[in-house]
Structures are given as C-alpha cells and as structure tokens.
Amino acid sequence: xxxxxxxxxxxxxxxxxxxxxxVRKDFELVRAGVxxxxxxxxxxxxxxxxxxxxxxxxxxxxxYEVWIRPHELDGKLxxxxxxxxxxxxxx
Length: 91
Prior knowledge:
The chain is mainly β. The chain has one helix at 83-86, and strands at 8-9, 20-25, 28-38, 44-47, 56-59, 64-68. It has one helix and six strands.
C-alpha cells in the first residue's frame, strides 16, 4: 500500500474477495494483504498467505476493521475499484 493514498474503512467484507486491504485493530495496522475469502455477513474474512505470513482469519467481533485504498492498475483497467463498484446494487 502506498503512503499518502487515502484509506477508507469498508464494512461489506464479502465484496472484497481478491482485493488488497489493510486489517486494523484499535487504530493500528495488524496486517495488509489480499482477501482470499469472506463470510457473506461480513463477520469474518481470510487474508491469503503471502510473504508476511500464512493464511489468517480476522473476525469483526474481535474488533478488526478492514480498510481499502483504491489504486491504479497496469494495463487496460484503470482502477481495481471505484466508489460506484463498492456501493451495493439497488434493491
């Protein structure tokens, strides 16, 4: 994650599969990584194993929060996500 980019707390964890995130607790960064899987009700998510450690489970009930930083990608795609993509579709 790049310094200076604006981070946003994101509560719908089930929509973040495949997205780089920061996991925080008590305002402190616990770990950054890519979401491998998440509970549909956003009660827990798993970060994929990487150089920082093995696959890890984080639960909202334990005080963990997930923060995202929209970022530019290489190639034809301009952004991994935008505010439009993160909003829930109309019911």
